[in-house]
Design goal:
binds magnesium ion; 20% helix; 6 helices; binds guanosine-5'-diphosphate
C-alpha cells in the first residue's frame, strides 16, 4: 500500500486536519468519482465511499463543496479488510488547486472537476491543425487552476516537420515547457517522466483523439483506459468513463477524464 506522501499528502493538508477534532477519521484520497459514488485510497487500502448526510446537505447549496477526484477527504473507513464495506466521507480538506466548470443547467454554479493537480499536460496532436492562438487561450485558463501547465505535443511519429511547428508553439507557450512525444516510439514518452515522480499528480487535458488515454496506458503498462479509433469525420469518439486517478508504477499519479475538456471551454 502506498504511503500518504506517495499519494500527494503534504503539510498543506496536514495543517487543516489538525483542526478537525473527530475521532476515528482518517485522510484518504478520492481516486474515482462517478455520479456521487466514490473510490478512496489511503495507507489502509482502497474502498468504495459515500458522503455522509450532513456533508451532502451542506453541499446541496454549493455543489463545489462535494468531493471530486483528487480531493483529500477525512473519512471513516469500514472495519475489517481493505476493499470490504463502504467508507464514509465526513469532510473535504481544502484544495490546493482546482479545475472548475459551469454546472449543467440554468444556474451558473461552479462544479469542481478535479482537485489538487500539480501539473496539467495540455495535449495537442502534431498531426492535426495545431493552432497557437487556441493554445495560448487554453494556457491562460490553465494557469488559473493553480496547476503548472505543460504543453505535450503528441503523435510526433505522424509529423514530418516538428521543427517548424515547435517554433510557433514555443512562442505561444508563454514560458510553459513544451515536449514532443510519441506513444508509438521507443522512449517516446520519456520527456514526461520528470513530472511523474512519487506524490505528484498530473491531469491530461485536450481534445478527444489527441492520444490522452494512450499516454496513460503506455505509462501504466496495460490497457486501463479505453482507446478509440478516430471516426471518419476526424472527430474522436467520446468514451464516457468515470473520472479516475491512476497510480503509475513510477510513483506519479495521472488523471485522464473526459470532463477536463469542458474546463477549457468555460473561459472560451
Ligand atoms: N501514430 C500515433 N497514434 C497515436 C499516438 N497516440 C495515440 N494514437 C492514436 O490516436 C487515437 C486516439 O487515441 P486516444 O488515446 O483514444 O485519444 P484520447 O481521446 O485523447 O484519449 C487512437 O487510435 C490511438 O491509437 C501516437 O503517439 N502516435
Ligand atoms: Mg480518451
Amino acid at each position: 500500500m502506498p504511503s500518504l506522501e506517495a499519494l500527494g499528502w503534504s503539510p498543506f493538508f496536514e495543517q487543516q486536519v489538525q483542526r478537525i477534532n473527530e475521532i476515528g477519521l482518517i485522510p484518504l484520497r478520492v481516486v474515482e468519482e462517478q455520479r456521487g459514488s466514490y473510490r478512496v485510497l489511503g495507507e489502509g487500502g482502497l474502498w468504495y465511499a459515500e458522503v455522509v448526510g450532513r456533508l451532502r446537505h451542506e453541499a446541496s447549496e454549493v455543489a463545489a463543496d462535494l468531493p471530486c477526484v483528487g480531493d483529500w477527504v477525512m473519512a471513516r473507513a469500514p472495519r475489517g479488510n481493505a476493499g470490504e464495506g463502504t467508507a464514509l466521507i465526513h469532510f473535504v480538506i481544502a484544495r490546493r488547486t482546482k479545475f472548475s466548470r459551469k454546472q449543467a443547467g440554468e444556474k451558473t454554479a461552479e462544479q469542481v472537476v478535479a482537485a489538487n493537480i500539480d501539473t496539467v499536460f495540455l495535449v495537442q496532436s502534431l498531426n492535426r491543425d495545431l493552432n497557437p492562438r487556441r493554445l495560448e487561450r487554453y494556457l491562460t485558463l490553465l494557469w488559473e487552476s493553480g496547476a503548472e501547465p505543460v504543453v505535450v505535443l503528441s503523435k510526433a511519429d505522424l509529423c514530418a516537420d516538428v521543427e517548424s511547428l515547435m517554433e510557433a508553439v514555443e512562442r505561444a507557450a508563454m514560458g510553459a515547457a513544451v515536449h514532443v512525444t510519441s506513444a508509438f516510439s521507443p522512449g517516446g514518452l520519456d520527456a514526461l517522466s520528470p513530472y511523474l515522480t512519487p506524490g505528484r499528480t498530473v491531469a491530461l487535458v485536450g481534445s478527444s483523439g489527441v492520444g490522452k488515454s494512450t499516454i496513460v496506458n503506455r505509462l501504466v503498462g496495460e490497457d486501463l483506459m479505453d482507446v478509440r479509433d478516430i471516426r471518419a469525420d476526424g472527430r474522436g469518439r467520446h468514451t464516457t468513463t468515470a473520472r479516475r486517478l491512476v497510480v503509475l508504477p513510477c510513483g506519479g499519479m495521472l488523471l485522464d477524464t473526459p470532463g477536463m475538456r469542458t474546463v477549457l471551454m468555460w473561459g472560451g
